[in-house]
Specification:
196 residues; mainly beta; four-stranded antiparallel sheet
Length: 196
């Protein structure tokens, strides 16, 4: 999903997401930009937006990068899944984040978001277009949870809700004062895929 900042659309792409002991290739995220969302005008802004990924790229993976702009500190906040919090429910109560002064990075790791429930699989972020409040969505033993982020995006407020049903992928959108959550069963990033 493109993130639009300063008149440009930015797409974050996982270059390689699954660790493989026989493969020492870097696992990182790249950023591309476009002024028109056309098929041919995408420009590579950075092939390595999170340099810290190389510290532990032999034992973890990074995928589902999401960026929100922090109106308080004027910084960009990147969140993603990694091996510690994407390996299934019950793994971690922390969602890793990093900050940067521009959407294409480079990003510097910051204190992870501490979630109310175990963030077994982070499923992205979303900002309410009417209130400006941002949220993180994650799977847990309590199902698919949506938790409110602080105004500076550097922590959670502790306000949350859970569906009671586990689901991956999809997203949140708002239409005519109603909120909709789309999810799928199964492993949406696995080779076998899942439903929609």
């Amino acid at each position: 999903i493109p993130h639009v900042y300063a008149g440009f659309a930015f797409v974050l792409v996982v270059r390689q997401c699954s660790p493989n002991k026989s493969d020492s290739a870097p696992r990182s995220d790249a950023a591309y930009s476009s002024a028109t969302l056309g098929m041919t005008d995408w420009r590579l802004e950075s092939a390595d937006i999170l340099p810290a990924v190389h510290v532990d790229n032999s034992k973890t993976f990074y995928f589902e990068p999401n960026v929100l702009y922090d109106n308080v500190t004027k910084k960009y906040v990147l969140s993603w899944c990694h091996g510690g919090n994407c390996a299934g429910p019950g793994k971690s109560f922390n969602v890793p984040i990093a900050v940067a002064s521009q959407p294409q990075g480079p990003y510097t790791p910051a204190t992870p978001w501490k979630t109310r429930h175990n963030a077994g699989s982070t499923q992205g972020t979303w900002r309410d277009p009417d209130t400006g409040i941002a949220y993180v969505r994650y799977n847990s033993n309590h199902g698919n949870c949506i938790e409110e982020l602080s105004p500076d995006l550097l922590s959670t407020t502790g306000r949350f809700t859970c569906t009671g049903a586990y689901g991956e992928g999809g997203g949140i959108f708002k239409r005519q004062d109603k909120y909709y959550l789309m999810t799928a069963l199964g492993c949406c990033f696995c080779p076998a895929g899942g439903d929609a």
